[in-house]
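Two entries, shown back to back:
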Amino acid sequence: MNLVKEIRNRDVYQISFWGTFLSYFIIPVILLIPFIFLIVTKTDYDFLTVMSIFIDQQNSSPDIMNKILIFSVIIEVVSRVIMIVLIVSFLKNYLIGDAKKFSKNLPINIVIIVGGFIAILLVNLLITLFYQLIGIKGDSANEEAVREMLNSNMRPFMVIVVVILAPILEELMFRKILIGFLIETLHLHKVVAFSISAFVFAFVHVIGDFQEIIFIIPYLALSIVITLSYAFSKNNIYVPIGVHFLNNLLAIFAV
């Protein structure tokens, strides 16, 4: 029975891992293509030019940049919803099991969530002081892009992305699926699996921003705390989602 369960877990996490992480990059591209063609038909730009503008988010007229901003937010919302639906449908039994365990151990799980959130606040304070000490100013390109979207007329949709969709999708991907894949399929030690999860989460948030790699520190600190909350909750996915939710909710009020 245990062998059957082990094989099932291995296969589920392996399929989930490859399907999810490939979809994470493919779905936004698929959604992006129709928007690019729409802009091409309404402007004098060719396909490659519009694609480069989408990537650089600059060097174009305000009207085009506004359209790209709107399309970018739409793609963010739609792609994340699709991803969440796919993951939830595939891991339904695992998520139902976690929900039951979460309710059963509700008091301790709430303590872990609140404790994790407080830990993030303290760590962020220390990182801010460290950056000030060595003369580093500003934020990562990812933070600036999110802030720009939040300050646009698409703010309501970005609030949904940042506060609800991002915590759910990212924790399902980088905690539930990635750690499950590393442990169940690759048979890595838990410490190694949790460490890889923490680093990959941080790295993804600064990808394409290698000249500002110093800004990986806040993401890595956030990821370590969230990953520890997952470990302390005995791998209950709703706990890191809760910590991530509170962190992003606070960030919204700061913008």
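entry 2 starts here
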Amino acid sequence: MLHSVQGEQRAEELMRSCGEQLIEEGRQQGLTRGRAEYVLRMLTARGVEVDETARQRILPGVLDDFAQ
């Protein structure tokens, strides 16, 4: 019986750590995207034209960099 309780506790710890890792990855991804959007806004505010093609290259590129 002790082994089954320990096994359940270990499983809960693993699920919790996996969940925490996924939450942190999502948080980091959100921060990264927010920074990219901020850069785009600053460029626009300073009169730099950022066309849709450039915008589409910047935002997914940020996510690709984050994944690596």
